[in-house]
Amino acid sequence: MLSSLISGSGAPDLTSFFSFDYIVLFLPICLLIYALTPQKARRYTLLALSFGFYWLVSGKLIIYLLLSIFSAHYFGLWLDRIISKRTEALKEAEKEQRKEIKKAYQRRSRGVLALAAALHLGTLLVLKYSAFAAANVNSLLGLLGLDFRFNVPKYLLPLGISFFTLQAVSYLVDVYREKVKADDCLPRLALWLAFFPQITEGPICRYSQTAEQLWSVGRIDFSNLTLGLERLLYGMMKKIVVADRLNPLIKEVFDNYNMYDGGVIALAAVCYTIQLYMDFSGAMDAVTGIAQMLGVTMPENFRRPFFSKTISEFWKRWHITLGEWLKDYLFYPVTMSKPMQHLTKAARKRLGNQYGPLLAGSVALLCVWLVNGLWHGAAWNYILFGLYHFVVIMVGRFFAPLIKRSNERLKISPDSAPYRIGQIIRSDILIVIGELIFRANGATAGFVMLKKAVTDFTFSAYGKELFTALGVDIGDFVAVGITVAVVFIISLLSEKGVDIRSALREKHPALHYAAILALIIYIVILGAYGPGYTPVDPIYADF
Fold first, then answer.
1. I need a surface site. Which of 7, 24, 119, 193 has the fewest CB within 10 A?
2. Three-state SS letters, 394-434
3. DSSP string, 288-349
């Protein structure tokens, strides 16, 4: 839009919620059009705006979104017809026939679901992972001394495909499980899959959570606008003041890790962990805020993850909707499958009730973490990221009974403040190690960086010029430190059950509006933008 025209690029920059084009032009225009549309037509206006947004950012790649919508609608209705026919058949059947009828229709439903899942997930696999697979097969062929090579395909990846694919699959599985009824209204299903604030970075919504909200005739009111704006600005503060300001340091160290001591690498890993949280949770604040302006309540995707006492708890608080998707549509089906049931039974006999289920459950957990790693990207460091968390969680579960007995013997209370704080610090250190692997430019780089951080933990090589060498100055760290402290205090109060937003709005309305103004001023003064700063794309939009 305006900034694009000034720069001569022609296309608007809408990939970030916090770009000038998005927040100053696109979003206000959308809200104005939505508000001016007659009440009954607003659902179609919102659908048109969502398709318009996707076309502006992805162009002809919108065809993949449309295919996902049409196939989800078609297969959902197909499954619904099978369920209806089964119901009718059972009504007319004799008691002894019902079991066979159920089996026959279940086989048919499973076949349709398998075909639908293959289409949706197959498209994602081909577009996102075929090049990675071909390159690794070629490397293996080279090691074996074979001359044959596969062509490495190159595909343009549609924006948000990892998100809307998982949503479509969840809808189809829920129809199959009869948790939701297939939607015979194509525009409603399309709006649920294509909703413009959500499609680039999530959250991954269930049909039952937001479909009817989006389709209901929305009403823009002053309260929703101000609350949504406040949440949007809070996310913008996280992204522009913290995440973008830390980017030069992180990029420099991860790109040139051989030049830096282990202490600097550890600092960069901590900074990246902070950056990733501020970037992604800031984007979720923006999604939630924009949706609230439109009268829609989105599921929360973060719940103060760095207060977690274990890695398992962390992943119940971080990217919540992805974790719940993997639990409901991968972990439980694998765990409840017949082979796993047999394995669990055999493991119980050999290892007892304590460690038997742990061994059997590890298979399902391994599947979850391999998929979690690969979902983020087609590279070995993402696979290692998943395996790392699998190992850490399994070690924690294995030693949990021993730790419990030790605490009882030593009369250590797990509820005591020092113990809980120690657990939180331990968990956060383990998370930082995982994020180092996640961000590293390849698996080898990750191993080298981790080794240096452990065996060469010094800052001596740079002395006072360290920050200058890393592309940041003391002012950057002061701005980041103040903002992180603000977010920490708000998160700590929220962890203790204090909702600052509600308290300000209900008891001190003037302070509520003052907070909005303060956020704007704070972002304008301390935000990382303008000359000397390169705009940083949203991290999770690449996944």
1. 7
2. HHHHHHHHHHHHHHHHHCCCCCCHHHHHHHHHHHHHHHHHH
3. HHHHHHTT-PPPP--S-GGG-SSHHHHHHHSSHHHHHHHIIIIIHHHHTSHHHHHHHHHHHH
Rounded-to-10 torsion of CA 20, 23, 28, 29: 60
Cβ atoms of 238 and 278 within 8 Å: the answer is yes
Residue 541 confidence (pLDDT) above 70 = no
> Is the domain of 373 the same as that of 250?
no
Residues 419 and 500 in one domain: no
C-alpha span between 519 and 234 (Å, rounded): 7
Q: Which pLDDT tens digit goes with each residue over 360-416? A: 789 999 999 999 999 999 999 999 999 999 999 999 999 988 898 998 898 999 999
State whether 294 and 313 are in the same domain. no
Confidence at 315, pLDDT banded by 50, 70, 90: very high
CA dist 517 and 70 (Å) reads 44
**CA-to-CA distance for 303 and 105, rounded, in angstroms?**
41
Q: pLDDT band at residue 352, thresholds of 50, 70 and 90?
A: confident
Are residues 399 and 295 part of one domain?
Answer: no
Burial class (CB in 10 A: 0-12, 13-18, 19+), 229: middle
Q: Say yes or no: 71 and 213 in one domain.
A: yes
Answer for the pair 469, 268: CB distance below 8 angstroms, yes or no: no
234 lies in a domain?
yes
pLDDT, tens digit, for every residue of 222-281?
889 999 999 999 999 999 999 999 999 999 999 999 989 899 999 999 999 999 999 999
- DSSP-assigned letters across all residues of 456-478: ----TTTGGGHHHHTT--HHHHH
End-of-domain residue from the set 158, 189, 218 = 218
Q: Do 43 and 60 share a domain, yes or no?
A: yes
Six-digit token string for 232: 């949007």
DSSP state letter for 23: I
Q: How many helices (H) and strands (E) does the chain have?
A: 23, 0
CB atoms closer than 10 angstroms to residue 188: 18
CA angle (276 as vertex; 270, 277 as ends), nearest 5: 95
DSSP letter assigned to residue 530: S
Are residues 240 and 179 part of one domain?
no
The answer on 195 and 54 residing in a single domain is yes
User: How many domains would you assign to the chain?
Assistant: 3
* Alpha carbon distance, N-terminus to C-terminus of the chain: 25
Rounded to whole angstroms, the Cα distance separating 278 from 350 reads: 46
Question: Taking Cα atoms as reference points, which of 94, 165, 155, 168 lies closest to residue 127?
Answer: 155
Residue 163 lies inside a defined structural domain of this protein: yes
**pLDDT of 410-449, one tens digit each?**
899 999 999 999 999 999 999 999 999 999 999 999 999 9
In a domain, 72, yes or no: yes
Could you give the angle at the alpha carbon of 367 between the alpha carbons of 364 and 372, nearest 5°?
125
Tell me whether residue 149 is in a domain. yes
Which tens digit of pLDDT belongs to each residue from 456-501?
887 765 555 666 677 788 888 899 999 999 999 999 999 999 888 8
In this predicted structure, the answer to whether residue 6 has a pLDDT above a threshold of 60 is no
